[in-house]
Amino acid sequence: MARKQLNSGNAPGVELAKAKITRESLGNVARLLTYLKPYRGKFVAALFFLFLSSLVGLAFPSFIGALIDTAQGKHTNSYLPGTIQGILMLAFAVLALQAVVSYFRILWFVNVAERSLADIRRDTYFKLITLPMNFFSNRRVGELNSRISADLSQVQDTLTTTIAEMLRQLVLFVGGIVFMAIISKKLVFALLLVLPVMIVFAVLFGKFIKKISRQAQDKMAESNSIVEETLSGISNVKAFVNEAFEATRYKNTIREVADIAIKGAKYRGMFVSFIVLCVFGSVLGVIGYGCVLVSQHEITFGELLKFSLYAMFLGSSLGSFPELFANLQKAVGASERVLEILGEQGEPVSITEKDNAVKQKITGNLAFNHINFAYPSRPEVEVLNQVSFEAKAGQKIAIVGPSGSGKSTTAGLILQFYHPQSGEILFDGKPASAYSLTDIRNQIAIVPQDVMLFGGTILENIAYGKLTATKAEIIEAAKRANAHDFISAFPESYETVVGERGVKLSGGQRQRIAIARALLKNPSILILDEATSSLDSESERLVQEALEELMSGRTSIIIAHRLSTIREADRILVMEKGQVIESGTHQELMRSEQGLYRYLSGLQFEVQ
Ligand SMILES: Nc1ncnc2c1ncn2[C@@H]1O[C@H](COP(=O)(O)OP(=O)(O)OP(=O)(O)O)[C@@H](O)[C@H]1O
Predict the structure, then answer these.
(1) Ligand 1 centroid to 408 CA: how many Å?
(2) C-alpha 421 – ligand 1 centre gap (Å)
(3) SS3 484
(4) Ligand 1, CB cutoff 6 Å, lining residues
(5) Ligand 1 centroid from CA 414, angstroms
(6) Residue 344 and residue 459: Cα distance in Å, rounded?
(7) Is the distance from CB of 501 to CB of 458 less than 8 angstroms?
């Protein structure tokens, strides 16, 4: 039977989909096996030791048979000593060899698998974080996460356990047949008569079971995503009093999972019963026939015992194949999903820190020239239509407009998260393509609506803007961002842990941390995505002051929700349905009586 896993993988409990084993899928997996290359010496040694230990395992029935025969005064095996003592001594020596070999085989297999898996994990992660935004908009975080955790753990299990076990069982199977044939061809012939029928039946049955377990896995994934969505949006669930709705939704899918799994278990149970009945039943029949041969003095009693032990090896290795094969199928599926990521085209960004130094400086001139854009996931919906504007270095450009008009999309294009289908984005008069992606993003900072803080300390969170910053630089940035005072008020000051397991910061405090982060980055172009939720007036004043400090001397693109904050902007672009329909200063735009800006201003004035 398949052994317990020997590694750090966390695959148990996560049922992974299996894939068809075809020449193509095996070819794919072979691509992952190239990760074994640096460790091939150890891997080959482990394989050899595995082979050796399996082979040595095959010697035991011979020892036992020979012991019985010798006790009865017969010397049936000319390769072994003729005395009980001699056989025992040799058997113990082989046992000791087996112990040593087994130790190294496990150690080396795990060693190779863990190291190569760490390499695959690293590459997959590197690939993931350099993939374009479009890749992420089409996938769920949970699904991607499971590729790195569950899928790779399955591959790991296969490398450390399944492959080894398959080889071991194969050696026992083939070796068993050969040794049995040496004892009695007639008996082996009898055994081989029943085997092929059982194998064909087992394969067909296995396919059927696979289909059912796939259904269960799909349903399970559905129920997992309910949990994930509900928990990550728990405040929404509570606010809408939708606990009952979510509970029913989850209860129903989970019941379906159970129903399908039970249906699967029924057939799996039948499958196991079949194996037990047929495999062991036929072994029993064959041994019965062996007894007849002993009574006719064709073989000795010791040889029959030896044969029976080999037959048991054969039975157990046959019994273990379905599970091992299923594991292999899962690993093939898992590898294909991992390879899918590894095969994606990443963005040309560097993942080595030393390549991140700015090579081409941008002073801060930015222009959009007749930009047309549709998201790759929805190519038929034009989100930006002929958008043109210019921001000279140091200017403040505000973008206003109703929800869905394309403001955040414009920011995404500046950051090169996406690329326009037509038109050009120019930095200092040169097209974006003339710069490396790293150079552009290194010289732009964004203060987003929802500031994301990592689960580390405040110091680390500010340092995210410039990883090489000294503590003095970080404190200086925090001071300029009006954040130093509130940070110092915490008992652990800059070492205070924030995020899920730490202090919860208020919206205004988070924004000031984001501003400090941006100050530290010292960008030429700044994108401010103004928070829609309003802060209390003191907090608002502190944030506004910090923003003024941040904006001074840089090109700022302000996505504004409150028109009161952008009166001083050099130009205001008014967007509607992906088009810039008005542009000018606050005064200019207010003069246009029928203008959208004036209308929106009026609305906000009424609300305030
Ligand atoms: N990743 C995406 N894939 C496909 N369509 C998107 C994507 N992101 C936004 N859109 C669509 O693009 C349009 C413009 O969205 P955008 O977020 O730029 O608007 P916005 O003006 O910033 O709105 P808001 O003020 O509500 O933030 C919307 O119709 C939106 O549905």
Answers:
(1) 7
(2) 16
(3) helix
(4) 137, 375, 377-378, 383, 401, 403-409
(5) 15
(6) 35
(7) no
**What is the Cα–Cα distance from 330 to 324, expressed in whole angstroms?**
10
Best residue for ligand 1 mutational test, from 408, 410, 577 (most atoms within 8 Å of Cβ) = 408
Measure 236 CA to ligand 1 centroid, in angstroms. 21
Rounded mean pLDDT, 306-322: 81
Q: How far apart are alpha carbons 138 and 576 in whole angstroms?
A: 26
Q: Are residues 513 and 453 in contact, defined by beta-carbon separation less than 8 angstroms?
A: yes
Cα(446)–Cα(525) distance, integer angstroms: 9
Do domains 1-183+320-347 and 362-443+555-608 share one topology? The answer is no
> What is the pairing mode between strands 525-529 and 555-559?
parallel
Structure tokens at 34: 């190239």
Q: What is the torsional sign of CA 32, 118, 123, 450?
A: positive
Give the pair of three-digit tokens for residue 296: 């006719």
Q: Distance of CA 210 to CAs 15, 214, 241, 322, 333, Å?
A: 12, 6, 40, 11, 13
Mean residue pLDDT of the chain comes to: 84
Tokens linked to 405: 């008009």
Instruction: Specify the pLDDT at position 339.
Output: 86
Give one word for 521, left, alpha or beta, with left for phi > 0 and alpha for psi -120 to 50: alpha
* Cβ-count burial 354-381 (b if 16+ within 10 Å, e if not): eebeeeeebebbbbbbebebbeeeeeee
Adjacency order of strands within the sheet including 571-576: 444-447, 525-529, 555-559, 396-400, 571-576, 579-584
Give the span between the Cα atoms of 161 and 157, in whole angstroms: 5
Q: Residue 329: its pLDDT value, please?
A: 84
Could you tell me the fold of the domain covering 362-443+555-608?
Answer: Rossmann fold (3.40.50)
Question: What CA–CA distance (Å, rounded) separates 535 from 509?
Answer: 10
- Whole-angstrom Cα distance, residue 168 to residue 50? 7
Q: For 15-25, what is the mean pLDDT?
A: 67
Q: How far apart are CA 147 and CA 342, in angstroms?
A: 11
284-300 pLDDT, tens digit per residue, is: 887 788 889 889 988 88
Instruction: Identify the burial level of 116 via C-beta atoms within 10 angstroms of its C-beta, where 0-12 means exposed, 13-18 middle and 19 or more buried.
Output: buried
Closest atom of ligand 1 relative to the 411 alpha carbon: 18
Of all protein residues, whose CA lies closest to atom 4 belonging to ligand 1? 375
- Ligand 1 nearest-atom number relative to CA 410: 18
CATH topology classification for 1-183+320-347: ABC transporter transmembrane region fold (1.20.1560)
pLDDT of residue 606: 52
Task: Name the residue ranges covered by the structural domains of the chain.
Answer: 1-183+320-347, 185-298, 362-443+555-608
Q: Is the pLDDT of residue 428 over 90?
A: yes
